[in-house]
Amino acid sequence: MPSFKRVAPIQTRRSPRSRRSEPSTPERSASAPPRLTTACAVHETPVACDLVRTTRLLLHTLRDDPADAETQGHALLVRACFVRRLASGIYTYLPLGLRVLAKIEQIVREELDAAGMQEMLMPALSPIELWDESGRSALFGQDALPAFLIDGRGGRFVLGPTHEEVVTVTVGSQIDSYRQLPVTLYQIQSKFRDEARPRFGLLRTRELMMCDAYSFDVDAPGMHRSYDEAVAAYLRIFDRIGLTVTPVQARSGAIGGDVNHEFMVTSVIGEDKFVKCPNCHYASNIEAAEAGEAAEAGEAAEAGEAAEAGEVGSSTDPPKDGAPAHSLDAPSMKTCHTPGCTTIDSLVAFFTRSGTDRGAGVDVSPALTEITPADTLKCVAMMTAQSEPVVVAVPGNREARVPEGWRLFQEADFADNELFVRGFIGPVGLAEKGVRIVADWSLRRRSGPWVTGANREDHHVLGVIRDRDFSIAEWGSYATVQDGDPCPRCGSPLALQSSVEAAHTFQLGTTYSSKMSGGSFLREDGSRAPFYMGCYGIGISRLMAVIAEENHDEKGLLWPEAVAPFQVHLLSIGAERSEETRVAADNVYVSLKDAGAQVLYDDRELSAGIKFADSDLLGIPMRVVVGKKGVSRGVLEWRSRRTGLSGEVGLDAPGAVLV
RNA sequence: CGGGGAGUAGCGCAGCCAGGCAGCGCGCCUGCUUUGGGAGCAGGAGGCCGGGGGUUCAAAUCCCCCCUCCCCGACCA
Fold it and tell me: What is this structure's pTM?
């Protein structure tokens, strides 16, 4: 991992090139720096605060947004000189950015330490044999686990995308007995992922800073306790950083395990989405989210129970007769030549064209000349976890959801199941050939008529009526949940939120410990058992991006106190023309530092406008101005970047700005 | 991986269609003036026009190949 993370206190630099002499007061006494006691001081950071004269700081702000910036937060981080892109998805943390990163890390350390975890550091590079052992090397190169592989002299190595294997063998070799358990370890480490598409600046990158913790317990109940403790610590971290977070049900993906939660920060970037019930506590990532059946009066309880009890949110009770009475009297279905209409959009366009343009011999009832996607039945072929081909029916205006463990049909599947005609799948006649047809709740209240696939190349059928022309084997939540869909537990309308996944916690169980050598310990009765593990990841660099995204205005960044690179931005105005002003500003700088504040001192000989603009851009919470206007009256001016509140305090007691 | 767009000075861009001296703004350097919200004047430095090949008397410009970056999709912490 990069050495920059181990930030040792930097010695005060007194460069001979410094343009002016340092103030006579010592910048730092030999004794330990005073602990912050001011209201705005949350804690100390491990970063030395000595390099704080802007004339000595690597700071080159940009007036224009960089061309490749996708979001305001990203643009501001680049303009304000916090980060710089080296290649797609690869960023350098410049001095200011590193300070923010270090503050976030420190909050994470404090909370995890307080939760009884121990920090360690595993290597970023690991031998591929470890990944062969867990079986995950088979996932390399796939999107699920896009690891970088390195061919070295000593064999093949993996630039770690995550560390379950490494931690399992590491801890396994140290722990032999139940007496040594439970234990939870964590590290803050660079992770590497060969992303298909890095984007949103620091939000999705190839190299990222992450804190990952791993718990080891003797049994499942112990794992649950460790998990709950880790989740509680994570919530405290978000609370301190000032981000609103919602833990949601999610999918475990390539990490594995049963229970897992994503920590979603509501954000306008909306890289991810989740749904939340305003009534009960149901919250889920959009990928894992299920909806209940839209409830008529009195049906809510039943729908909720069904979903809660159902494995994939399905039930097998017979369909209710929700069909309008006239449906059964509707004209019988007709097959129609629909060349090339393999998508809902093209199908709708086909039928919405003028009647003469529909191809010869097509008899379309007048009622169908104007159809919408909602009038079509979208049928998607999927393979269940048991490798059973099924047809999933959803309304044409909604996306099919792939239940966990299932997958969409691939080329080979279509080749193996000639019943399924890609692009023209429909429910009619398939049940008779042994294909199970499942449907989304939202289809239950309408029997038809539907436009749907004819299971024949370039053909669809019109006027299809459920329970007359086909039947549904199972009802469930098979459509991607939309805003306002009923909660699967209580039936209340779900709210859809755009968000960023900031952390992810997993109950791994024995997924890794049962496969890795040394992944077991001796029980009290002398028998050998695998560890019950949990793993907990929180994206440090991603948090920095989210904070910037959620804390800025048109002028620049607005760092929350807890993670701001500095607490005070001291600006001298006109000091190059006034020795009195310069001395006053220097003295204020020293006083604030002696009071324990982290101060960035803009001592550059630049016009006031530039210094004010840069100050707004950097977003340090408190701005303090020492200029001739105030100095003549013996005062300095302060202003809160966030609230705009301002005032004056005497130059003889600048520490007053800290309370 | 599919579709679209773009690579010209540190940053943002024009020039390309219609081939003919490498440009503009910001930033940077020097000097003078100015001085509390991105100052003015004068002078200056800085480019393999992404790379390679081709066409041509002549290529930033036209053609071919490659690389990189960005966007949409797929996928994903």
Answer: 0.84
